[in-house]
Fold this sequence. Notes:
It comes from Paenibacillus gyeongsangnamensis. The chain is α/β, with parallel strands linked by helices. The chain contains eight helices and five strands; from the N terminus they run βααβααβαααβαβ. The chain has a five-stranded parallel beta sheet, with helices on both faces. α5 (about 105-125) runs antiparallel to α6 (about 135-150), α6 (about 135-150) packs across α7 and α7 packs across α8. The two termini are about 20 Å apart.
Amino acid sequence: xxxxxxxxxxxxxxxxxxxxxxxxxxxxxxxxxxxxxxxxxxxxxxxxxxxxxxxxxxxxxxxxxxxxxxxxxxxxxxxxxxxxxxxxxxxxxxxxxxxxxxxxxxxxxxxxxxxxxxxxxxxxxxxxxxxxxxxxxxxxxxxxxxxxxxxxxxxxxxxxxxxxxxxxxxxxxxxxxxxxxxxxxxxxxxxxxxxxxxxxxxxxxxxxxxx
Length: 211
């Protein structure tokens, strides 16, 4: 039976330090899971750039820091296969900003509410054994993205719903091509609930949270 795990990460070093989820913790959890393959939140074109020049960083603002500082080195040191699963179109990403079509005053108010959602999410870090990997955090994330959908359904369909479905389909394609392997999905923690809801429909052993 194929085993798939989900590990939600925080992309920012300062926030990782503040909320007790350092890279050492992520490394311990990854090695504990013993993945044959890591499916990571990295754009395929970024992965190609990395393979061509492993010193080139910072294009498109991604991959996130944990990939450069932890996951790519694990790929090198432990020969763990890596599959990039992210999806976005960088030339039009900013055109689909959720508050783009609102007035300056409305935008300021919506950004304030968005910040409040972020604070609620951060305050849920202590639930569960792994920070930001819990039902409590996931429930808040789902509520936040449901709110964003109400604000701008076109934006959320492009930036969130379609993106997540493509990422998940790349995971499904990976484990179908590699039966009976241990597959670890490493994504920003906001994605956890979406991945869990979709992957639990598959004929796999799904592990989330990992502890």
